[in-house]
């Protein structure tokens, strides 16, 4: 990365390590008393039920801090209407750690149509209403009311994706950084192990949080920007630069490539790869002062949609830990200072995180109540972090980063043995070996120098970078060793597959199809039309066809009847009704009937969300003259596009028929092979439920943005 990081487990343990390891992190005074604690050093407040499992953020952070010697308590799903629950463990000695949980609270509580959900997969009994809207803000405010002088550290995906001024779909406005609204002292974004360990040990030494302003992966509030004697400010608060009047380099000027995707860099292996050199690199060699980038202020992006798109573009280009510079954004009289992303964990460090003494079950206080999100991952194993796909509608990359962090084979196999030996109800099936994607394990850049300087938004779009390792042999070997473990009857792959990578390694596809597909395999072409796919940064449908042919051939060779479950998105920025009709016709030609689909959900910080709000494309240089992006914003149109994906369902026939007539496409109405819906008088003879086609209703639900427990973790 060009910068070394302190080993995560190299800190001298805090004195409280003498208390040893708690069976579960305590959630009550009685549990603290049983452990001999008079107080907690750190208290984590979370919107999820406490499940002591490495797939749950509160457990990972809590067990990590425990391993550093601290006494950690958990306040899970507190009643936020007063401070009573926030005081149940007393005041922490060091800080409150506040998180909304594994999901953004607004996505958890509302559908893409802004309807409130009646359930919550992260709550015992799947009961809805156990967390407030914008949980990080509400919880932080209650902590402040309860104990005014205790530092508050916010983190998790909700805080992470709201670290700068961001468009909020639920209020249809740009909101301030959550750091401002929450009254917290510091924000941790992304995978926060390094930052939270540094903060905890710093506070334990008596250092004030106000002195911890340069920790990677954090955002803090400053009264004023750093002085020019120590820093160079790169002003990126405008989009139309007046030519040579400004001596500072335009942040869009990446070697003359307007789209910011880069030029050619020679690699150590003698090849070349498209990368983008770091702006101001020559200047920085002459001037020892570091550079930070000034974004348009909150007030400007709130009132100017083009500037909002510009700010989104700059933020995403400053996301590589190897070359990202700090960002600063004015909010009224305060400055939000965002440090560069954290240095990724090494394999040894990641193993250490996953090898912590998790019970792998919910806290005993929940009794026999089922927690759907836990039931879904109960027998699954996370083998890696991060995603270099860069799909614009997904926020995984913005949260976990583009550099893949992989566990060792030994650590993964040990976890499978732990599941076999310790998890109640194990019958021999591992439900998943995956992560954000099924098949990015150990896929990294071949050249570390290139990786440290690259500013591409994706390693696989518009094509797979020639400097990306696409050899899946490590994953193939892992699968073979996993299913050879005594007591393991089957290893399924439940994570979404990145098929454009898979086709580069037919042996991996053969292994997957022959041994790890239980009849269905999730796959996500998302769309068929090139214009929309370009807005998504997804490969063309031809790549999907190539994978499908490979999948069907290997299924036949294995003597198995297996099917792909394709996922599509309706109402994505750039998607017109004509595009969705084309998708519907493609589905019919291929005898595919998708029963569970999703409507585009504008999640915070995603580039597609910037498109949705600004009607500009931040994948390219943004200006006031940029061609607007078509946005299917109207609720009726969003529902129509979703209905077109389920053209075969009689419930949607009237709506689709009316649209086709209005568009002059009567040729698609009737009983012919190329028709989408029958004539009106024939509607009563249609079979309810749209049975038939290549497959029936899958057992799993929608992907990205879907309700957890109804379709899995958010996948690529």
Produce a short descriptive summary:
With 716 residues, the protein is an alpha/beta fold. Helices cover 30% and strands 13% of the residues.
- According to CATH, what is the topology of the largest domain? pyruvate-formate lyase- activating enzyme
CATH class of the largest domain: Alpha Beta
DSSP helix fraction: 25-40%
Number of strands: 23
User: Given the C-alpha coordinates, what overall shape results?
Assistant: globular
Describe this structure in words.
The structure is a single chain. The chain is of the alpha/beta class. It folds into 2 domains: 15-223, Response regulator (Rossmann fold, 3-Layer(aba) Sandwich); 347-685, tm_1862 like domain (pyruvate-formate lyase- activating enzyme, Alpha-Beta Horseshoe), CATH 3.80.30.20. 30% of the residues lie in helices and 13% in strands. It is built from 24 helices and 23 strands. A hairpin with a 5-residue loop joins strand 10 and strand 11 (272-275). It is globular. Residues 242-284 and 682-716 have low confidence and may be disordered.
């Amino acid at each position: 990365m060009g910068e070394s990081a302190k080993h995560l487990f190299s800190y001298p343990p805090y004195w409280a390590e003498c208390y040893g390891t708690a069976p579960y992190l305590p959630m009550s005074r009685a549990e603290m008393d049983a452990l001999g604690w008079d107080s907690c050093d750190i208290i984590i407040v979370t919107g999820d039920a406490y499940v002591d499992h490495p797939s749950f953020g509160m457990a990972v952070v809590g067990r990590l801090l425990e391993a550093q010697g601290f006494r950690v308590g958990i306040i899970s799903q507190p009643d936020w209407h007063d401070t009573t629950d926030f005081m149940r463990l007393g005041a922490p000695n060091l800080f409150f750690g506040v998180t909304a949980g594994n999901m953004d609270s607004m996505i958890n509580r509302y559908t893409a149509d802004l309807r409130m959900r009646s359930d919550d997969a992260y709550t015992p009994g799947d009961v809805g209403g156990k967390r407030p809207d914008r949980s990080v803000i509400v919880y932080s405010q209650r902590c402040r009311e309860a104990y005014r002088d205790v530092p508050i550290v916010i983190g998790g995906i909700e805080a992470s994706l709201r670290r700068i001024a961001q468009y909020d779909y639920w209020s249809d406005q740009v909101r301030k950084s959550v750091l401002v609204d929450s009254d917290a002292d510091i924000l941790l974004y992304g995978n926060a192990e390094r930052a939270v360990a540094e903060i905890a040990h710093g506070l334990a030494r008596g250092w004030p949080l106000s002195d911890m302003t340069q920790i990677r992966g954090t955002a803090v509030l400053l009264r004023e920007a750093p002085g020019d004697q120590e820093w160079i400010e790169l002003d990126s608060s405008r989009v139309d630069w007046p030519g040579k009047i400004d001596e500072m380099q335009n942040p869009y000027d990446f070697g003359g490539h307007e789209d910011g995707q880069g030029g050619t860099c020679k690699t150590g292996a003698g090849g070349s790869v498209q990368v983008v050199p770091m702006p101001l690199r020559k200047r920085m060699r002459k001037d020892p002062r570091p550079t930070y980038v000034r974004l348009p202020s909150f007030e400007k992006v709130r009132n100017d949609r083009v500037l909002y798109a510009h700010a989104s573009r700059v933020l995403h280009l400053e996301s590589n830990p190897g070359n990202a510079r700090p960002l600063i954004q004015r909010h009224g009289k305060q400055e939000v200072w965002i440090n560069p992303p954290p240095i990724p964990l090494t394999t040894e460090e990641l193993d250490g995180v996953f090898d912590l003494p998790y019970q792998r079950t919910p806290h005993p206080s929940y009794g026999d109540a089922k927690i759907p999100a836990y039931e879904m991952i109960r027998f699954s194993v996370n083998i890696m972090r991060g995603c270099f796909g860069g799909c614009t509608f997904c926020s995984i990359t913005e949260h976990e980063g583009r550099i893949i962090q992989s566990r060792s084979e030994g650590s993964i196999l040990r976890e499978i043995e732990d599941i076999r030996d310790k998890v109640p109800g194990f019958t021999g099936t591992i439900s998943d070996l995956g992560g954000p994607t099924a098949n990015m394990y150990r896929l990294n850049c071949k050249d570390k120098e290139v990786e440290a300087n690259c500013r591409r938004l994706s390693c696989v779009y518009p094509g797979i970078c020639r400097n990306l390792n696409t050899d899946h042999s490590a994953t193939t070997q892992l699968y073979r060793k996993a299913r050879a473990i005594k007591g393991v009857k089957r290893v399924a792959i439940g994570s979404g597959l990145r098929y454009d990578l898979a086709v580069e390694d037919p042996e991996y596809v053969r292994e997957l199809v022959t041994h790890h597909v239980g009849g269905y395999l999730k796959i996500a072409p998302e769309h068929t039309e090139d214009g929309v796919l370009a807005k998504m940064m997804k490969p063309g449908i031809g790549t999907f066809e190539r994978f499908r042919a490979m999948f069907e051939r290997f299924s036949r060779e294995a003597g198995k009847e297996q099917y792909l479950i394709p996922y599509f998105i309706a109402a994505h920025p750039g998607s017109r009704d004509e595009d969705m009709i084309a998708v519907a016709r493609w589905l019919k030609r291929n005898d595919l009937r998708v029963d569970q689909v999703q409507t585009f959900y504008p999640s915070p910080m995603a580039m597609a969300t910037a498109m949705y709000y600004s009607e500009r494309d931040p994948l390219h240089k943004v200006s006031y003259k940029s061609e607007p992006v078509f946005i299917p914003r109207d609720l009726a149109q969003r529902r129509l596009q979703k209905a077109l994906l389920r053209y075969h369902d009689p419930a949607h026939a009237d709506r689709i028929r009316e649209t086709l007539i209005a568009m002059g496409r009567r040729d698609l109405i009737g009983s012919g092979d190329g028709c989408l819906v029958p004539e009106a008088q024939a509607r009563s003879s249609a079979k309810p439920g749209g049975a038939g086609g290549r497959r029936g209703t899958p057992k799993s639900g929608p992907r990205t943005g879907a309700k957890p427990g109804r379709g899995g973790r958010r996948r690529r």
